[in-house]
Write a structure and sequence with these properties.
Elements (H helix, E strand, L loop, with lengths): L2 H13 L6 H7 L11 E4 L3 H5 L3 H11 L6 E7 L2 E6 L1 H10 L16 E5 L13 H17 L3 E5 L7 H15 L8 H17 L2 H14 L3 H24 L17 H10 L3 E4 L2 E4 L10 E4 L7 H16 L3 E7 L3 H13 L8 E6 L2 E3 L21 H19 L3 H5 L1 H15 L10 E3 L1 H4 L7 H18 L14 H11 L1 H10 L4 H19 L1 H4 L6 H25 L8
Parallel strand pairs: 4-5, 4-9, 9-10, 11-12
Antiparallel strand pairs: 1-3, 2-3, 6-7, 7-8
The structure holds arginine.
């Protein structure tokens, strides 16, 4: 049983008394403004005309006809509303018993449905820049949200592993080799080669041409060139995976752009057969003006080369064929809005009804104010080496977390574990700052915000989780043995009602593809709980009254488990001690 079930039960009780479908009543239920008024209410205003009576009169009549039950302790009219107060037993069931379960918050809403999530998907042959954390963590959180709400989830890294930049690497690589070096090929070395190329190309215009020639050889399938390309890709992925491991992110498939090399001809044929391909200055495009998109979509360039868009069309067809998805999400920055509008519109024109299940889950920019990260670096240009790498940001965050832990940690266990803890807190801080605002907003990163131990940060939630864990350990009480019906104070009820919202928050966050809803909820839960916790006079957790202590420890454990489950969705560790 959960909060939604209680709403449905209230709707059923009302439906037995009025001539309205239960679903309609269910949809009309609201939360009363003051907790003493009740926990859910039905507005009678729309009935007034039909019943030719004033709403307060209708509400009073209805309330009189519905008697208290196991689920609802009180049914009363307040103005034009019929308000229901959830019984202590039912509240204990949905907010404590349910919240202590290992799978708390999970639901079957998505059962039988499949979602494909394309996220992170960086252009490789260079390390991840800090802004890649956006797609990576948003996508990973969405994958966990969908899984928690019962969907089958397929995660895909659509690596940018094909393009002239590989030609550039090959130029730099062979130049180094010709001058007697044996250049390394790992991710760091690839960046070096990349920078070397651009530095040399500034004064030597032939190099760009050479790079294009290398790429042409690659496209033509020249065995030696393909071999070299493969080394760069494999090394790149190896480097990426190290970072993904650190962020606890996994992909079911690394099917990058190159994977579609042999699949685009068929896609292009289908475009041709549907009469969508139009010649334009020697190139092939699809016109989209009739569906309100002015820019035509480029399918084949004048030199016969295929495009990013063609690859995405082929990839969409492939995914549908392979996974039979209901939804296919593309977690990609706002800037690519036009690209995805074009792709989805073309898929529709090709006659694919499933294109309606494709969605661009877009997000805003991540930036660092000048000076926040050392020197003059901004998220700007890789070419000039002015990029902030994600690895460096994580390293700095962990360093700063370590300072905080070393300054505060009194406990030996904490001291001995400081390295691991700093990793969890530092990385958690960076991840959480991704979820502090709705995804479409731009993010201005700040260390003070990310590492604020007093509130609205990942470390604050982790710290609350650790504090509650210590409290439970200290109590010596076994979790799950309390009687939740003893939790009747207004503050306790407020915590219980907030806890009961958790499954709905997960469903809402999934429906909107908005993990920040979970972050916002966890902060609110902490705030509500801390009001109770601060009230030592009335709400001391551990007292001489064993029954009351047991009930309160269960409440604490329910909050702790909710924090843990919520942080897990966001990809953040929940340490037991801090
Ligand atoms: N590699 C692209 C970029 O870095 C993002 C790819 C997103 N996924 C896709 N199917 N287009 O801009």
């Amino acid at each position: 049983m959960n909060l939604n079930d209680l709403y449905a039960a209230a709707a059923d009780l009302l439906a037995a008394k009025i001539d309205l479908p239960a679903a309609e009543i269910r949809a009309a239920l609201v939360q009363p403004p003051q907790p003493e008024m009740g926990d859910l209410g039905f507005p009678c205003f729309t009935l007034a005309k039909k019943l030719r009576a004033a709403p307060p009169k209708i509400a009073a009549d209805l309330a009189a006809q519905i008697s208290a039950s196991e689920l609802f302790a009180k049914i009363a009219a307040v103005g034009g509303y019929v308000n229901f107060t959830i019984s202590p037993a039912a509240l204990g069931e949905i907010a404590v018993k349910a919240a202590l379960a290992a799978d708390w918050g999970a639901s079957s809403a998505g059962n039988g449905k499949t979602v494909v999530i394309d996220f992170s998907s960086p252009n490789i042959a260079k390390p991840l820049a800090v802004h890649h954390i956006r797609s990576t963590m948003l996508g990973a959180a969405l994958a966990r949200l969908y899984a928690t709400t019962g969907w089958r989830v397929v995660t895909i890294n659509h690596l940018g592993d094909w393009g002239t930049n590989f030609g550039q690497l090959m130029v730099a690589y062979t130049r180094a080799k010709n001058s007697g070096e044996t250049p390394a090929t790992d991710l760091g070395a690839q960046l070096k080669l990349y920078l070397e190329f651009h530095q040399a190309a500034e004064t030597n215009s032939v190099l760009e041409e050479e790079a294009r020639a290398w790429f042409k050889k690659l496209e033509d399938g020249d065995a030696e060139t393909v071999k070299m390309w493969k080394i760069f890709v494999d090394e790149s992925v190896k480097g990426l995976q190290k970072l993904y491991d650190r962020l606890n992110v996994k992909f079911d498939h690394y099917t990058g752009e190159s994977f579609f090399n042999d699949k685009m001809a068929a896609t292009q044929r289908r475009l041709q057969e549907s009469g969508l391909l139009v010649k334009s200055d020697g190139a092939l495009v699809v016109e989209l003006q009739d569906v309100g998109i002015d820019a035509p979509c480029l399918i084949q360039k004048t030199d016969g080369a295929t495009t990013y868009a063609t690859r995405d069309l082929a990839a969409a067809e492939y995914r549908r064929r392979e996974y039979n998805f209901d939804k296919c999400l593309y977690v990609v920055a706002n800037q690519q809005e036009l690209h995805f509008r074009q792709i989805f519109a073309i898929l529709k024109k090709m006659g694919y009804a499933w294109a309606d299940g494709c969605e661009h889950v877009k997000f805003g920019m991540l930036s660092f104010a000048a000076g926040v990260f050392g020197e003059e670096r901004a998220t700007g240009s890789t070419r000039k080496g002015q990029i902030i790498f994600l690895d460096d940001v994580l390293a700095r965050a962990v360093e700063k977390a370590r300072e905080i832990i070393d300054a505060n940690g009194r406990d030996d266990e904490v001291k001995n574990n400081a390295g691991r803890l700093a990793e969890q807190v530092g990385v958690g801080a960076v991840i959480f700052s991704e979820f502090m605002q709705r995804r479409q907003k731009d993010v201005l990163f700040s260390w003070d915000k990310a590492l604020n131990m007093q509130g609205d940060s990942g470390p604050y939630l982790q710290y609350t989780h650790a504090r509650l864990s210590s409290l439970i350990a200290k109590s010596g009480v076994a979790v799950g043995g309390g009687d939740a019906q003893l939790l009747t104070s207004a503050l306790s009820r407020a915590v219980l009602l907030t806890l009961a919202e958790f499954p709905r928050v997960l469903l809402g966050a999934t429906a909107e593809n908005e993990p920040s809803r979970v972050a916002e909820y966890l902060l609110e839960l902490c705030a509500v709980f801390n009001r109770l916790y601060a009230d030592k006079k009335e709400h001391q957790i551990i007292t001489a009254d064993a029954a009351r202590t047991a009930a309160r420890i269960d409440l604490v454990a329910a909050v702790r488990n909710t924090l843990r489950r919520g942080l897990a969705v966001l990809g953040i560790a929940a340490p037991e001690k801090m």
